[in-house]
Specification:
The complex is a heterodimer of chains A (381) and B (512). With 381 residues, chain A is mostly helical. Chain A folds into two domains: 305 residues, ABC transporter involved in vitamin B12 uptake, BtuC (Orthogonal Bundle); 66 residues. Helix content of chain A is 78%, strand content 0%. Chain B is α/β, with parallel strands linked by helices and 512 residues long. Chain B contains 17 helices and 22 strands. In chain B, strand 14 and strand 15 form a beta hairpin. The radius of gyration of chain B is 25 Å and the shape is globular. Classes of the chains: A mainly alpha (381), B alpha/beta (512).
């Protein structure tokens, strides 16, 4: 069969996630070829821990961008919330069960303030969050006094540095696979009931077998080092929950509708301002998670924590196929984007490539990824 | 040399095999003002786009003779160089540039160094303003410092600067207040005295009567007649304008009209860009259960603005009360309206109706998504059941409910949008141009649905620019003109002439 340009485009856009996984495979093969250490279990574990924080931000950033907005303040907010966590934990000696809820509440509050200014007051989110980026960073400097606050308590450190014991990791893996099987069967029976086309049973089983292989490989690899890192586990939970939010909740459906056509959604009787407010609230929540994880990982609150991570999060979304114009994007895509970014960082560092080359490469990859996306959707003018 | 400045002969323009205008003649002498009249969609704008080369030479049939020579312009630039300048209904200005910069936009004056010569530009612009009797305008200020009326005159200054010999004004007064209109008309008379010709397109026949020397009327894309204004009056023009054929059959069905359930009192809305102008001016009306109330009027009369206000979507200043079942209700936004039982199918389907990236099914359930959810989680099965029920009921032709709505035909998109706004079980349904851009088959199905809903007791407010449709469907007809309620007729033996006369503002003489 002759594969025309159009067929290629359709394949790319239908199986975008497959294309992205292929990109990861190519990158890993490349770095592995140059330095076999790149493919070790230890490095794999490191890489995942490195991308966990960006991944947390990117999971919520997807919704912000899908809703047609942008949030530049997340790096600074992460730093501020991480700094507050450090002060509560180190200076005031609060227990973890008090620190975490307070930081989470503050994160949601800050996010909703940004959302309120954007959705209800009507200031463009670019401006509000640019202001937030400056103001939150200033607040971090004020709170920390410009110095590192250390050492964090052991409980807090576990959140960022801990590993799950082997047995518990296995249990999670089995549970995850069971959930995926149940979901696949339910979707299938639902489609059959409404006389919608279903893929063949063989294809379905094959797909599940591949997923099982990936999960087993994932857990075995991590177990052969020290186990599943706690931040990675948290990120996987976020991925699961946010995917459900995006695909199967009223709120999620409305986020995509708002981004696709704001006015038509408003005229359908949807309170679009509230949807935007909640999207920014969710972003604030993820900043709290990322802030806590950052402080825990460094075992200290630093004034520069999260500097520039808003750009990594935004870049991850775009590499992962989120549309600049809103209405299109997925959490899994953004996380794959984050893995691509983290792999580049990690691989080039291992090869001893200068930081300036790393930045140039990442910049080029971002632009190239979005170009590929535009070319594959055929929406260029 | 012919006595005419412009002769358009036998102009025919087709779109995809459908003739928008056919064999139309238009002649203009130097210093003459020709009024061009016709109903909505009669073909006036198409004719002017042919003349100004928006549709370039070769895409239409017929010939244009300009100052004795055939004009074969391929771009607006060429027609402007020849001296034909069109001023569109929506002003084409860059609001943040100064008055002078706007006047010279695209032909900026420069000094020997290649820099813009602001002194020269401002001096010339001031001279133009003096010619327009507006010496109080500071040409160095941005255009947005001036209201709609002054902006219209600045647009004319721009045309004068291009050495226009023929000025085409397309609904120039639709955004102007009464005094601003008078100033404009005075000015045009003066230009005429200086030998400039103009084509004046307006729904406001008293303006046409005041200013035109001859009047050309077109209807359904064909030339009805050209007469000197001295032989005409507004009633005669109306008689020439109407008489469109009843092309569609209306599946009229008997239905009972019940009690008053909806009432709008003293609704007034102000323009968002020209806050001195009222777009809806003190309109009050009642609507009964099971009643189909048609809203007729010319484009720009304020009907859509009225509908937006009732649905909580008007963004400018507003006043007035809305009652539902005898109780006053607050409608601050569309969500309020839908919750209280008012639905609206908007006029601009692409901008306000469809959510293009989503499937047909997801579009349909957007208004009532919460109904299919427990604790936010959507029950995909009950949603899909509802979607398939609606698709079958509305006869939306789609291969799958998952197909993006944008891939459907206009008629099927419209049916999906109607389904979306019917799911909340409205007591009052506002339909703004429900059959615009819809094929004949889908039109018929929408009409049938309207009668079906009326039978079920839904009160329907249907705005339409097609008079045969209004008369074919409605129990009662409201006529809106220049934002005001100009008539409230029971649709028994109602004629197109009577409705149009009311819309144009001659209710007392319309004895047709």
């Amino acid at each position: 069969m002759q594969l025309t340009k159009k067929d290629f485009r359709r394949l790319l856009s239908e199986y975008k996630i497959v294309a992205l996984l292929l990109v990861i495979a190519v990158i890993w093969a490349f770095f592995g070829y140059l330095n076999i250490e790149f493919l070790s279990a230890r490095n794999f574990s490191n890489l995942l821990r490195q991308m966990a924080i960006t991944g947390m931000l990117a999971s919520a950033m997807v919704f912000v961008i899908v809703a047609g907005e942008i949030d530049l303040s997340v790096g600074s907010l992460l730093g501020l919330l991480g700094g507050i966590a450090a002060v509560l934990d180190v200076s005031w000696g609060w227990p973890l069960y008090a620190t975490i809820p307070v930081v989470i509440m503050l994160g949601i509050a800050a996010g909703m303030m940004v959302g309120w200014l954007t959705a209800y007051v009507g200031i463009p989110s670019f401006i509000v969050t640019l202001g937030g980026m400056l103001a939150f960073r200033g607040a971090v400097l004020g709170i920390t006094g410009g110095i590192t606050i250390a050492p964090a308590s052991d409980e807090l450190k576990f959140v960022g540095q801990g590993y799950l014991p082997e047995g518990i990791g296995d249990v999670f893996a089995v549970a995850l696979f069971a959930v995926l099987v149940v979901l696949a069967l339910r979707t299938r029976s639902g489609r059959v009931k409404h006389a919608l086309p279903v893929p063949s049973m063989g294809f379905e089983i094959g797909k599940l077998a591949v997923i099982a292989a990936v999960i087993i490989g994932f857990v075995l690899t991590l177990n052969s080092y020290q186990g599943v890192p706690v931040p990675v586990l948290i990120l996987l939970f976020i991925l699961g929950i946010f995917t459900v939010v995006g695909n199967s909740t009223v709120f999620g459906r409305r986020i995509y509708a708002v981004g696709s056509n704001l006015e038509a959604t408003r005229l359908s009787g949807v309170n679009v301002n509230f949807v935007k407010l909640m999207v920014f609230g969710l972003m604030g929540l993820m900043c709290a998670f990322a802030g806590l994880t950052t402080t825990a990982r460094l075992a200290a609150g630093t004034p520069s924590a999260g500097f520039g991570s808003e750009l990594d999060a935004i870049a991850s979304c775009f590499i992962g196929g989120t549309s600049m114009r809103g209405g299109i994007g997925s959490v899994i895509g953004a996380l794959v984007g984050a893995i691509i970014m983290a792999s580049l960082d990690n691989g080039m560092s291992m090869l001893g490539i200068d930081t300036f080359w790393q930045q140039i490469t990442k910049g080029i990859i971002l632009v190239a990824a979005v170009w590929l996306d535009i070319a594959s959707s055929g929406s260029q003018r | 040399m012919s006595e005419y400045l412009l002769e358009m002969r036998g102009i025919t323009k087709e779109f995809n095999g459908v003739k928008a205008i056919e064999n139309i003649d238009l002649k203009v002498k130097p210093g003459e003002c020709v009024g061009l009249c016709g109903e909505n969609g009669a073909g006036k704008s198409t004719l002017m786009k042919v003349l100004s080369a928006v549709y370039p030479y070769g895409t239409w049939e017929g010939s244009i003779v300009w100052e004795g020579n055939e004009l074969k312009a391929r771009s607006i630039r060429e027609t402007e160089e020849a001296g034909i300048v069109i001023i569109h209904q929506e002003l084409m200005m860059v609001p943040h540039l100064s008055v002078a910069e706007n006047i010279f936009l695209g032909s900026e004056l420069t000094n020997g160094m290649g820099f813009v010569d602001y002194d020269l530009m401002n001096a010339k612009a001031t001279a133009l303003m003096n010619r327009l009797k507006m010496p109080d305008i500071n040409v160095a200020l941005p255009v947005l410092a001036y209201g709609g009326g002054k902006q219209q005159l600045i647009e004319i200054a721009k045309a004068l600067n291009k050495n226009a010999k023929l000025l085409i004004l397309d609904e120039p007064t639709s955004a102007l207040t009464g005094t601003e209109t008078e100033t404009l008309l005075e000015l045009i008379k003066e230009f005429k005295a200086h030998g400039m010709a103009c084509v004046y397109i307006s729904h406001k026949l008293d303006e046409v009567a005041a200013i035109a020397d001859t009047v050309t009327v077109i209807r359904d894309g064909t030339h009805v007649g050209t007469h000197p204004m001295a032989e005409l009056d507004t009633n005669k023009i109306i008689t020439m304008m109407v008489g469109r054929e009843m092309k569609n059959l209306f599946p009229r069905e008997e239905h009972e009209v019940g009690e008053v359930i909806f009432e709008a009192k003293n609704i007034t809305c102000w323009d968002t860009t020209n806050p001195d102008r009222k777009v809806v001016d003190d309109v009050s009306f009642q609507l009964r259960a099971g009643e189909i109330l048609g809203v007729a009027g010319l484009v720009g009369a304020g009907r859509t603005e009225l509908a937006c206000k009732l649905f909580g979507y008007w963004k400018g200043d507003q006043q007035g009360k809305i009652f539902l079942n005898g109780k006053e209700i607050q409608v601050r936004n569309p969500a309020d309206a839908v919750r209280q039982g008012i639905s609206m199918v908007p006029e601009d389907r692409k901008r306000h109706g469809i959510i293009p990236l989503m499937g047909v099914g997801q579009n349909i359930t957007m208004s009532v998504l919460g109904r299919f959810a427990h604790n936010q989680l959507i029950d995909a099965e009950s949603e899909m059941a509802a979607i398939q029920h609606e698709i079958a009921r509305m006869q939306v032709k789609t291969a799958s409910p998952m197909l993006p709505i944008a891939s459907l035909s206009g008629g099927n998109q419209q049916k999906a949008v109607v389904a979306k706004m019917l799911l909340p079980d409205p007591k009052v349904l506002i339909l703004d141009e429900p059959t615009r851009g819809v094929d004949v088959g889908a039109k018929y199905e929408i009409y049938k649905l309207i009668f079906e809903l009326a039978k079920q007791g839904v009160a329907i407010l249907m705005i339409s620019s097609e008079l045969p449709e209004v008369l074919g469907i409605s129990d009662r007809v409201l006529v809106i003109g220049e934002g005001q309620l100009r008539g409230d007729f029971v649709n028994v033996g109602l004629s197109q002439e009577k409705v149009l006369a009311a819309a144009i503002g001659k209710p007392e003489t319309a004895a047709a």
